[in-house]
Amino acid sequence: MAVENRRLGAAMFLPAVAYIVLLIGAPFVLAVMYAFSDARIGTVGFHFVGLENFRSILQSPSFRAALRNSVVFTIGAQVIVIVCSTILSIALEKPFRGRGFVRFLILLPWVVPISLGAIGWKWILDSIYSVITWVLVWLHIFKPYNAPMWLGEPHLAMASVILVHSWRLIPFSTVIMLAGLTAIPKDIPEAAAIDGAGFWRKLFQIDVPMMLPIISVAVLFGTIFTFTDMTVVYILTAGGPFDSTQVLPSLAFATGIQGSDLAAGAAISLFLVPVLALIAYFMLRAAYRAEVA
Amino acid sequence: MAVVEARNLTKVFKQGELGAVNNVNLETREGEFLVLLGPSGSGKTTLLRMIAGLETPTSGEIRIGGEVVNHLTPRERGIAMVFQSYALYPHLSVYENIAFPLKAQKVPREQHRQKVEWAASLLGINNLLQRKPRQLSGGERQRVALARAIVREPRVFLLDEPLSNLDAKLRASAREELEDFHERIKTTTIYVTHDQVEAMALGDRVVVLHQGIVRQVGTPEEVYDQPADTFVATFLGSPPMNLLELPDIIVGFRPESLVPEGVIPGAGQVKFRFRVNYVEYLGAERVLYGSLDGSGIESKEIASRLSWTMPTGYKAGGVYDFAVAQLDLRFFDRKTEKRTDPRPYPWR
After folding, report:
1. Is residue A285 part of a domain?
2. ipTM of the prediction
3. What is the span of the domain harbouring residue A74?
4. Within a domain: A49
5. Residue of B nearest to A210 (CA)
6. How many domains does chain A have?
């Protein structure tokens, strides 16, 4: 019985192990190997070259630009996501008629496949067919001939990818925070109301501080999802114009796959690992502190 | 300090269902310690929460200091409340917890320290000011909650079962402290509890609630001695009042009134044959449980409470001559279950 159970357990467990080993473990080991080699697409065999790849990418201006863009992209998106999802979670916590439906609507961007969503946004932000531009022109805010090119001007393009990425992450973050909010005992906000706290004081001195542990979890996940994601950038701008929205994952893809330089691509993507590990460490520590404080 | 009034106050949570609070009329006196007593689900907490402004009445009026406050938010009502869980802000130190109402009420910053220290010293927690709530014991948390409530000198104090999270020993001393504390600050206090001992010990007056209806308002002596109906009679006292349901009337007497026959001096007593089924020894007193032989209601369990000064030697299985003084009998109408005028004992 016990042996049978153990076998069954192993059998049930195997798919997950296989999935992780084959699709995450193996590519990761490969990436580490490539990063220290001179591997290129189309050649057989490769030589280890030590830290040469890292030295060269650090000297490349496009890498430094991508690193800077990644930081701007991540921080920008996270600020928007956290502010919006905090507001949404507080608004959606109180019961009201149709709350279930509103929650469902807000969750939609997370459920829609990202490529579909991003293509939708590509149309919305298109230089010719953009509905936003059309409305702004109709309101006489812009003339048709000098309307903004949402994806065609460096700053606007960065703002656009940040906004679209935020649009995608807000539901996820909101759900995490809603879960955290329900864990706050209801009598604490009530005590604050009786003690005389108005809306803002209650929000900033009671609700948000008590939500901090859960906010930091949301930030941690959001940061990792943003830092490692290239879908939105790749579909909307492909890193353009003039590399102004090129982030590390999209640069790694462009260099390693499209540019055939596997070794450099691997080095670029590996560059993220220690950074993310550090962020995760500090976030989890902050969450732990807030929890026990 | 102010008087709190409830006029025809009703709260119905779900339409068509019985109200949690039904047409309650109440008035505190200046500086009074008023206890709302009732079993769970009796509406006492809902009533308190409506006074606090945390719950909107379905109908009726609440007045504080003569002013109708139905439309006012909790912060505008000038009240302070201590919650059953204490509801301390876990991320703030004790000092910041106590100072929070001052900040929220925009009391000038330079007065904060002095006021916090005043409140803390009143409750003897000056040495805890730098701690976080999780570093405090239950009794200390309760004092912090009280300090946070008094710091801005509210007109009315609302306390929602503040002792129920303490262990029995601590509860007794905390009760004394509360009494002492009210004696010093003399603020009108409304106190919710399901514990009759707390209610009797603390209350200037006790309001007994049942199913959202006020059953009786009176001093602890009145509600214990002159219960308005059978509910009050059986809710107060442990063991509760013995009730004999006779054909035309209900007769009640307290277990401590049922004593061995020789103990009651003189005439004016009603005699019973008391069959003892078991004896509970409680140190200072013994409780005998049994039935009344030859009463026609033998199945009904009857209790007698004998203090340690009374004769001993009663054993399970024995039948003894017991009696109740005529003056200690209470009579209740069979239909309404309300107390009626005393009359001669109707049987035998």
Report:
1. yes
2. 0.81
3. 60-119+154-292
4. no
5. B91
6. 1
Q: How many CB pairs below 8 A link A and B?
A: 64
Q: Is the pLDDT of residue A6 over 80?
A: yes
Which chain A residues are Cβ-neighbours of B52 within 8 angstroms? 194
Confirm whether A11 is domain-assigned: no
B222 and B204 in contact (C-beta within 8 Å)? Answer: no
pTM of the model: 0.78
Q: Is residue A286 part of a domain?
A: yes
Rounded average pLDDT over B46-74: 92
Place of tokens 């969450």: A287
Q: What is the pLDDT of residues B158-217, one digit of tens each?
A: 999 988 888 888 888 888 888 888 888 889 999 999 999 999 999 999 999 999 999 999
Nearest-Cα residue of chain A relative to residue B152: A195
Our CA-based measurement puts residue A57 at a distance from the nearest CA of chain B, in whole angstroms, of 45
pLDDT of residue A270: 85
Q: Which of B81, B96, B98, B158 to mutate to test the interface with A (most CBs of A within 10 A)?
A: B81
Interface of A with B (CB under 8 A): 185, 187-188, 190-198, 201, 205-206, 209-210, 212, 290, 292-293
